[in-house]
Design goal:
Layout lengths: L1 E9 L2 H30 L7 H10 L15 H23 L20 E6 L5 E2 L5 E3 L3 E6 L10 E6 L5 E8 L2 H7 L9 E6 L3 E5 L4 E3 L3 H18 L5 H35 L2 E5 L3 H4 L5 H7 L1 H14 L3 E5 L25 E3 L6 E3 H27 L2
Helix pairs in contact: 1-2, 1-3, 2-3, 5-6, 6-9
């Protein structure tokens, strides 16, 4: 399995200038190539192949007076920028042709120098390396100081340098993990028979079928007062001034702290659930639909989609069972004991008594129990179907 390991970078002021130049050259190459494709389409000319595009934009472009500075950065970065354009077009065509699932993807757009997030990618051809002192050596940039928070499990295949909206620099490595090492780290045998169902919520971030309730941290709500103060201060600054940019960065840093805290919480909880259970069953959430209502801010603050994505890939990495239950399944309406469906209930109803068997249910725990039972049933059907299809 391929994973991305991210670490904080601490470039010197001179290295920041070189990185800014690299970001700019990659952006210019992307925009030049996109302009050629659009001009050819407007003139009803044949599609420009990737090889011809690289020859025109890179090989011939470096010889032009207005683009001679493209030779000051690594050529691998510029080639990767052209590959990003190819990927963007491929996603657009696949989306239009019905080959790509999910929401529709638009045509590639020009990149702006005012974009708050910028990135460049170095492949193995760039001859980057991690030195013995723990620094990252990048071509035409130099040795960069990295804040190593954990060791890399394998030799990375690519390196991506990112500058976020708060002005922070990060480096991410794409690494291929070893299945045997993962299996030895969290053995499946240690948690055999331990299964759980999850019910996601706002009062409690998640409720387990065991009855455990995990409180919702509400990172955005807790930081709202400070964010409002910084936003008011930012709105008073004169547009285009240096103070305006300073206040924007202060506001972006505060938003980044909120996002980082939420991300860390999701990682810790998903790792714990995967480490302690052989199987995890969750409900399929219509987050986009729910986020259109009056609870939109709280739903976005919870970050359910990000958490469930982490849970899914970690379960696959460590050999756990991960099963989603359909969104039409009435987990909150059904009695987990006698399976009687008692109809929809208002969110104000937190406990209810089943008219069939008389069991008093906690709304969230009962929903988690139903998710566990339905998830086990769906997984058993999937296993039986897989065995039936075997030759």
């Amino acid at each position: 399995m391929q994973l991305r390991y991210s670490f904080r970078l601490e470039p010197t002021p001179a290295q920041q200038v070189l990185l800014a130049r690299t970001f700019g050259c990659a952006r210019v190459v992307f925009n030049d190539a996109l302009a050629l494709r659009r001009a050819a389409y407007a003139a009803k000319e044949p599609w420009i192949a990737a090889g011809d595009l690289a020859k025109t934009v890179l090989t011939q472009g470096k010889k032009r007076e207005g683009r001679s500075w493209l030779g000051e950065v690594s050529s691998v970065v510029l080639q990767q920028s052209l590959r990003d354009l190819e990927s963007a077009y491929r996603a657009f065509f696949d989306s239009r042709g019905g080959k790509r699932k999910g929401p529709p993807v638009g045509a590639p757009a020009f990149k702006s120098r005012k974009d708050r997030r910028q990135s460049v990618r170095f492949t193995a051809n760039a001859r980057w390396k991690i030195t013995e002192t723990g620094r990252l050596l990048l071509p035409k940039i130099g040795d960069l100081k990295v804040r190593w928070s954990r060791p890399l499990p394998a030799v990375p295949s690519t390196v991506t340098v990112v500058k976020d909206s708060a002005g922070r620099f990060f480096v991410s490595f794409v690494v291929e993990t070893d299945p045997d090492t993962d299996a030895a780290r969290w053995p499946v045998e240690d948690v055999t028979g331990h299964e759980t169902g999850l019910d996601m919520g706002l009062t409690h971030f998640a409720v387990l079928s065991s009855g455990e309730k995990i409180a919702s941290p509400r990172f955005l709500r807790r930081a709202e007062k400070k964010l409002k103060k910084l936003q008011r201060r930012h709105s008073r600054k004169q547009k285009g001034s240096k103070n305006k940019e300073k206040s924007r960065r202060a506001l972006a840093r505060q938003h980044a702290r909120v996002a980082d805290a939420r991300h860390h919480f999701h990682h810790e909880l998903s790792s714990r659930l995967v480490r302690e259970h052989q199987a995890v069953y969750v409900e399929t959430l219509n987050v986009r639909g729910m986020a259109r209502g009056r609870l939109a801010k709280s739903i976005h603050d919870a970050g359910w989609s990000s958490f469930l994505s982490m849970l899914e890939y970690k379960a696959a990495r460590y050999g756990r069972i991960f099963q989603r239950v359909g969104r039409t399944f009435p987990s909150s309406q059904r009695c987990s004991v006698c399976h009687r469906i008692d109809g929809p209930k208002s969110l104000r109803v937190r406990t209810w008594t089943c008219p069939g068997c008389g069991t008093v249910h906690d709304r969230d725990t009962n929903a988690a129990d139903n998710t566990l039972q339905e998830g086990e049933r769906l997984h058993a059907l999937k296993v039986a179907e897989g065995q039936h299809r075997r030759p």
